[in-house]
Amino acid sequence: MKPLSKTCFACCVLMLTLASVKTASANKPETNAEKTKNRPNVLFIFLDDFGWRDCSFMGSDFYETPHLDALASQGMVFTNAYSAAANCAPARASLLSGQYSPRHEIYNVGTSRRGKPQFGKLMHVPGTDTLKTTTKTWAHQIKKAGYQTAILGKWHLSDDPIPYGFDFNIAGSHSGSPPKGYFPPHPSAPGLKDSPKDEYLTDRLTEEATAFIERYQRQPWLLYLSHFAVHTPLQARKELVKKYQAKPKGKLHDHSVMAAMIESVDTGVGKIIDKLDKTGQRENTVIVFSSDNGGYGPATSMHPLRGYKGTYYEGGIREPFFVTWPGVIEPGTTNDTPIINVDLYPTLCEITGAEVPNEQPLDGESLMPILRGEKQNLGDRALYWHFPAYLQSYQRTNEQRDPLFRSRPCSIIRHGNWKLHEYFENGEFELYDLSKDVGELHNLATTQAAKLRELQAMLVQWREATDAPVPNTLNPNFDAAAEEAAIQRILSKR
What pTM was computed for the model? Predict the structure, then answer.
């Protein structure tokens, strides 16, 4: 056997070296940048107090939302999408934690009693007003997976959203309303101290969103665009208000300022989509759209749904919701599956390839099988709500349970088309078949006793599993005569 020439020997050494490098490279763990290279961006547009029918594509006959309508037509619209609470803070806590309210213990906006102290038989459960710092949000998990994360707008769960998984924050604080309104100054809002005097807050958040999208276009990102709109105070650009004042009123909607606020949001959505197109990111961006609770009762309507923000009728908790994902979700599709905002946690993690936390119980299910068209529903499951507190009235109408409170302490379950309300003050029940009575006008509690018992047993079992507190301490300030007199005074004026 002839000895190898120096040239052949060198070639062999080079081949062995390359093989060694290749093997080492194959065994080397992927970096976050490598893992996320082909994963989609996520734009989550989340509105405040935006009702189920406040978009044109959901049936508004006065508000104009051409950009949102176009987006909805490009993806999948869910017609039975819910928030896990009927007002801001608990809804957002459930969204970010992926948990029902008994787990994170944020039940209301603030922890004090709402409404006059002599009204309401029970002492409320105060809970907390801050999301636990030990909570792992989906932002935590997605950031850990290598994404750039940002929140623009309303946070409402602590003084600062940064410790909860966000790299970047503009305007997010513990405030539940726009800081000093929609026009400057905004002295307590991070990143807004430089706002020009005529700048409209919704427009500013749109500008920050487009800047973020352009800045991080070469790496995967998640943008939580959490608009303050259309929360009170109702303020809009004067020229847009004049436009709607001159427009014929609709039968469903007719509030000019609300319409102008909604148009500002929609115009901003159009600018954001334009930026995604110009930077070549549109085809690789998942867009999720929804709201935190029902619409603001004095200014909008969810008809035929009963109720609005703060009530646990459908109008207080059912939300507009759609998802677009080019190449994955079939455009122009709708789905009637009852879903709830805690479902977004596992869904967002699956979209981005992030891991769900092993140590934190999650109450939702991933929507990915539906979004991909692999399934039509998520099987036989129930949805739950728990509100061990009081929320005072702001409108005298039969769309709420009584003239004094939008809601009193209660638990709710939806299973299939059936929905049961259990109210703790007097052990009262309301049972509705939503397939025949989406407006919740015909209480079947006395005629469908077997169904009531079935649903109540499920509700009790769920409360035990989540350690949900049921208020049972009597209110020492309760004055039954004063409460009844107040109710009669209001009813006499209708």
Answer: 0.92
Q: What is the pLDDT of residues 153-195, one digit of tens each?
A: 999 999 999 999 999 999 999 999 997 899 998 888 999 988 8
Cα separation, 5 vs 10, in Å, equals 8
Per the prediction, the chain carries an average pLDDT of 92
CB-count exposure of residue 467 (10 Å: 0-12, 13-18, 19+): exposed
Give the N- to C-terminal CA distance of the chain in Å, as an integer.
110
Higher pLDDT pick, 396 / 410: 410
Contact 349, 143 (CB under 8 A): no
Domains of the chain: 34-378 (3.40.720.10), 385-492 (3.30.1120.10)
Taking the C-alpha atoms of residue 431 and residue 454, their distance in angstroms, rounded to an integer, is 11
CB 176 within 8 A of CB 188: no
Integer angstrom CA distances of residue 330 from 156, 211, 260, 323, 378: 34, 29, 32, 10, 18
**Residues 76 and 319 sit within 8 Å (Cβ to Cβ):** no
CA separation for the pair 340, 47 (Å, rounded): 16
- Residue-wise pLDDT tens digits, 83-130: 999 999 999 999 999 999 999 999 999 999 999 999 999 999 999 999
Burial class, 134, CB count within 10 angstroms (exposed 0-12 / middle 13-18 / buried 19+): exposed
403-418 average pLDDT score: 97
- Percentage of residues of the chain with pLDDT beyond 90: 86
In sequence order, what are the residues at sequence separation of 6 or more whose Cβ sits closer than 8 angstroms to the Cβ of residue 204? 192, 195
Q: Which residue has the higher pLDDT, 396 or 335?
A: 335
Q: Is 447 helix (H, G, I), strand (E, B) or coil?
A: coil
How does DSSP assign 249-297, residue by residue?
A: PPSS---HHHHHHHHHHHHHHHHHHHHHHHTT-GGGEEEEEEESS---T
Give dist(CA 351, CA 362) in Å, integer: 17
